[in-house]
């Protein structure tokens, strides 16, 4: 009976711990790119990734289709910058800090007021 419990518990524990390695914007399982490995293995960079992803998602919800296209283009530029860092930790932290500041600034900008079409009486 004990052996049956052990046979069940080991795969369950492995699945739990394998699933815990992730950052908000990427799945860490099987990543080989140096920047992705750093995001997955460095808690400080992983937290920045989580923060940047949350800000990006919030910004996407608070803008129209044109703004969303601009945000996606901006994120692509950030991802290229982050990828160019390879395994340089300082570079990665600076890239994330810049991205977080950019997204925070975007979210602080007031949204344009809606134009109301009022009839002329």
UniProtKB/TrEMBL annotation:
InterPro entries hit by this protein: Lysozyme_Inhibitor_LprI (IPR052755)
Signal peptide positions on this chain: 1-23
GO-annotated cellular components: extracellular region
Keywords recorded for this protein, A-Z: Signal
Name of the protein in its database record: Lysozyme inhibitor LprI N-terminal domain-containing protein
């Amino acid at each position: 009976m004990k052996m049956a419990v052990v046979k069940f518990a080991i795969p369950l524990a492995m699945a739990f711990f394998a699933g815990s390695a992730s950052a908000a914007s990427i799945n860490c399982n099987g990543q080989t790119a140096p920047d992705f490995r750093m995001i997955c293995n460095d808690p400080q960079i992983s937290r920045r990734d989580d923060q940047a992803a949350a800000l990006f998602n919030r910004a996407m919800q608070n803008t129209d289709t044109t703004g969303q296209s601009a945000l996606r283009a901006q994120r692509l530029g950030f991802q290229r910058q982050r990828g160019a860092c390879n395994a340089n930790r300082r570079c990665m932290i600076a890239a994330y800090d810049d991205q977080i500041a950019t997204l925070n600034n975007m979210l602080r900008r007031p949204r344009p007021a809606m134009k109301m079409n009022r009839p002329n009486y």
